[in-house]
């Protein structure tokens, strides 16, 4: 079946200039640039060299999840190409995801702009009604269950969202492996060549990607054209993921009852440290609530747009203040603050 005129127009609108050419970036789709978001110096008492990687400027959600959303649009480009080659018959497949808000809102809004099918979203039945309403208004179809009972497989997620012929993008067990998963963002981070890098850890995808790229560049001489970092510094950089096991935490995007996808393993991190790919303090750390409040106050005083989950890296830096050198380069990854409405 040939593409309709509408589908042909849609296919032409999804433009991917390159996979890894920094002179022909693919994100953000309406104004591609590399780096896509800024990194700038901020003032933190007791430290002289603190920088912020700020993904709060992203258009659709105000968070790093816009990057993920773009990758989903690119997956639809693949479907359209398959349909044009008559390898795919019938309507375009739909995607399902478990989300607490940010990913669903970013993906839904971008799918709406490209006139693509609505996203099917599975949420915990205790989710804040303001969040669920914002998701519903973002070109999403909502489904609810008790997510605390057990981790769900991709097939179970599809069943819960009435999408047996579609695909789950929560997990990297299936179609999620096809998503770029923040490689452009990862290079933006390591190109800063910090001594310490603090990264919010919800699903662990960003942390995983940054460590993987760092390994390839400092350990295997990969030399992607996007890489401009200092290899000697990055070999000793301490990459610190920030998470919480507190279901009542203000950093709600960093908590999950179950992770239905590959989790970063302590043995994997230990291997990276022993192999000389990263610094000795690299790991995933639990944040204390009292430091989240202080971090938010400091960020807000400097006009940084963030929520507790997004600025959790700064909270961990404050929590570890006595253990950290005061003049080394610190990089805080701010994943932003969700826009409940546009």
Describe the secondary-structure layout.
Elements: H1 5-13, E1 39-42, E2 50-54, H2 65-84, E3 95-98, H3 102-113, E4 119-124, H4 129-136, E5 140-145, H5 154-160, E6 167-168, H6 183-190, E7 196-200, H7 205-219, H8 231-235, E8 238-243, H9 266-274, E9 283-286, H10 289-301, H11 312-319, E10 330-334
Helix pairs in contact: 2-3, 6-7, 10-11
Any overview of this molecule?
There is one protein chain. With 342 residues, this protein is α/β, with parallel strands linked by helices. The chain folds into two domains: 5-10 and 65-178, Rossmann fold (3-Layer(aba) Sandwich); 35-63 and 182-334, Rossmann fold (3-Layer(aba) Sandwich), CATH 3.40.50.1100. 33% of the residues lie in helices and 14% in strands. It has eleven helices and ten strands. It has helices at 5-13, 65-84, 102-113, 129-136, 154-160, 183-190, 205-219, 231-235, 266-274, 289-301, 312-319; strands at 39-42, 50-54, 95-98, 119-124, 140-145, 167-168, 196-200, 238-243, 283-286, 330-334. The strands form two sheets. It has a six-stranded mixed sheet with strand order 1-2-10-7-8-9, with helices on both faces. Helix 9 links the parallel strand 8 (238-243) and strand 9 (283-286). The longest helix is centred in the N-terminal third of the chain and has 20 residues, at 65-84. The radius of gyration is 20 Å and the shape is globular.
